[in-house]
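Data deposition worksheet. Section B asks for the primary sequence of the deposited chain exactly as it was used as input, without tags or linkers unless they were present during the calculation. Section C holds the resulting structure in token form. Section D is free text for depositor observations; keep each observation to a single sentence. Incomplete worksheets are returned to the depositor.
Section A, Depositor: J.P.
Section B:
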Amino acid sequence: MNKAELRREMLLLSEALSESERKKSDSDISTRFLEGYSKHSFKKVFVYVGVGHEIATDRIIESLLAQGKEVYVPLCHGKGQMDAIRIFSLSELTPGRYGIPEPKSGGRALPPHELNLIIVPGVAFGEDCTRLGRGGGYYDRFMAEAKNALKIALCREINIQRTVPCELHDETVDGIVTELRIIKRKER
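Section C:
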């Protein structure tokens, strides 16, 4: 199956979930992430802001802020480009490009190599920590520059595959958090 076909199939699976199933899944994934990763010494954390059928990240963002972590969210600009902009509260976000909540004012962008942890969205992930995004290349470009950061994906179990189609420019993640488990990338 090619990327476009798998992306379409995975989006249909996500869309078929009821609102209550999505909320339960989001809650379980957030809890598992917070239990597994939030207590680490990560100081600078980049978190996507979940919209639509993506895993909601509000609870994770609020928890990280309450722990005194520096929280950065994406601000998209140009084709496939985004910056990491620090926020101090979810109230600083307003719908921006593609309807994704973004910081109201740009602020200074933190270079990706200064981040310690990146929480990554995706349409599907492989158990081998391969990633299928939405096709814009935003996260592949960003993660390629974030050499020092641990990259952890949030994904519903229904969107986990054995592997997903990859090209040379596609970035993998270091781990995946689902409702049922934490998958860690095996060293090759």
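Section D:
The chain has one domain: 3-183.
The first strand starts at residue 44 and ends at 47.
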